Amino acid sequence: MQNTLKIQRAIKNVTQAELADAIGVSRQSINTIEKGKFVPSTMLALKFARFFEVPVEKIFILDEDD
Amino acid sequence: MIKTFLPNYTKKIAFALYLVAVVFSCIANVDSFLSGYHDASTKAEYNPKNITYDRIPNNLEKRYTWISLAFSFTGLLMYIFSKEKVEDEYMQLLRIKALTWSIVLTWLAVIFTMTFISPLEGLYVLQFQLVAFLGSFACLKRFE
Questions:
Q1: Which of A38, B2, B75, B76 is the right S-S partner for B130, CB 3.0 to 4.6 Å?
Q2: pLDDT in tens, B75-133
Q3: Which residues of chain B lie closer than 8 angstroms to A32, CB-CB?
Q4: In this complex, is the C-beta atom of A49 within 8 Å of any C-beta atom belonging to chain B?
């Protein structure tokens, strides 16, 4: 699974720490999600979508082999 | 999922309790330290018949060992069940990974000590597992 979290952050001009505070997770979690090491739960994905005001599919994209 | 019941500040209390355990453990093992130091400095083979070290009486040694174990277990369990500053699902995932690692490390340690040194007593195996869990969790948090 790929994600555009870093791009969405850049568009909204927020740091990892600011995003982490807004969502209620640690900065480390944001970092590992951005690097693709950790796939968040549906609830967290929806929180990201609500924060960035975009559909979830714009942030998290399934690979062909997923 | 591993539940964390205690607030973050209890980690400091837990660490203090563990330090108390280390102090008691050192006092209980003074005689072993002395014999080890003597044997190393004289390059002599350990021979308990020649020199006896009895700064701490045997009954006190046992009592201090038990006190040390009690403080150690309390401290370690308190630390394990304390929340992180920010508690989220990633921390839960790291805890599960750390638990897996601690089981593997404990098995390896028990097999190693049984083969090359002497069998570990049950309580020390449990203590090792708790330490292995905390060590694995800290490493995963730092490096993953």
A1: B76
A2: 999 999 999 988 899 999 999 999 999 999 999 999 999 898 887 788 889 999 999 99
A3: 90, 144
A4: no
CA R_g for chain B: 19
Distance of CA B112 to the CA centre of its chain: 17
Residues 74-103 of B with CB under 8 A from A: 84-86, 88-91, 93
Contact across the interface for A25 and B144, Cβ inside 8 Å? no
pLDDT in tens, B2-52: 778 899 999 999 999 999 999 999 888 887 777 777 766 666 555 555 566
> Could you state, in order of their start, the residue ranges of all structural domains in chain A?
2-61
User: Where do the structural domains in chain B lie, given as residue ranges?
Assistant: 1-83, 88-144
Given a cut of 80, is residue A4 above it in pLDDT?
yes
Q: Alpha helices of B1-144 — where are they, by DSSP H?
A: 10-28, 30-42, 58-80, 89-116, 122-143
A26 touches B: beta carbon within 8 Å? yes
Closest residue in A to B88 (Cα) is A25
At B49 the pLDDT is: 57
**3-state SS assignment for residue A24:** coil
ipTM value of the model? 0.84
CATH of domain A2-61: 1.10.260.40
Q: How far is CA B129 from CA A34, B57, B80, B91, B136, in A?
A: 32, 30, 12, 19, 10
